[in-house]
């Protein structure tokens, strides 16, 4: 049960990080559905990053609510949403 709760925390943290990238990387010409897309992209990236972090850093006791899983979920989510925001800004 703890791993499911940890995965849910990764998804929520990733969504919040994705939406915070909207404030960090300014884009003057946004489309209306952009917040939902950033939330989903951040949540997906956090789930992937969390799994990678648990696999790499917590191999002796692989639980989702670990420091390695949480930190890598935040880092990977921030990196992927920043790359997306930077790329969209470069298109305009």
Q: Strand portion, in percent? A: under 5%
What is the average of the pLDDT values? Answer: 82
Order of helices and strands: HHH
Question: Which regions contain 5 or more consecutive residues with pLDDT less than 50?
Answer: none
Structure class: mainly alpha
| Percent helix range | over 70%
Output the radius of gyration.
Answer: 14 Å
Work out the count of structural domains.
Answer: 1
Amino-to-carboxy terminus distance: 45 Å
Tell me, briefly, the overall form: elongated
How many alpha or pi helices? 3
- Strand segment count: 0
Strand count, sense and barrel status of the largest sheet are: none
Give a short synopsis of this structure.
This protein has 92 residues and is mainly alpha-helical. The protein has one domain (2-91). The chain is 78% helix and 0% strand.
Task: Considering the chains and any ligands shown, give keywords for the structure.
mainly alpha, elongated
Description:
The protein has helices spanning 2-24, 34-57, 67-91. By secondary structure, it is mostly helical. The chain has one domain (2-91). α2 runs antiparallel to α3. The protein is elongated and about 45 Å long. It starts with a helix and ends with a helix. The mean pLDDT is 82.
SSE topology sketch:
Blueprint lengths: L1 H23 L9 H24 L9 H25 L1
């Amino acid at each position: 049960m703890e791993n499911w709760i940890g995965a849910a925390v990764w998804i929520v943290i990733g969504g919040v990080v994705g939406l915070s990238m909207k404030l960090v990387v300014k884009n003057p010409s946004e489309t209306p559905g952009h917040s939902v897309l950033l939330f989903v992209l951040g949540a997906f990236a956090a789930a992937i990053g969390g799994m990678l972090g648990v696999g790499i850093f917590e191999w002796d006791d692989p639980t989702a609510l670990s420091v390695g899983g949480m930190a890598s979920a935040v880092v990977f989510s921030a990196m992927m949403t920043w790359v997306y925001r930077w790329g969209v800004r470069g298109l305009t």
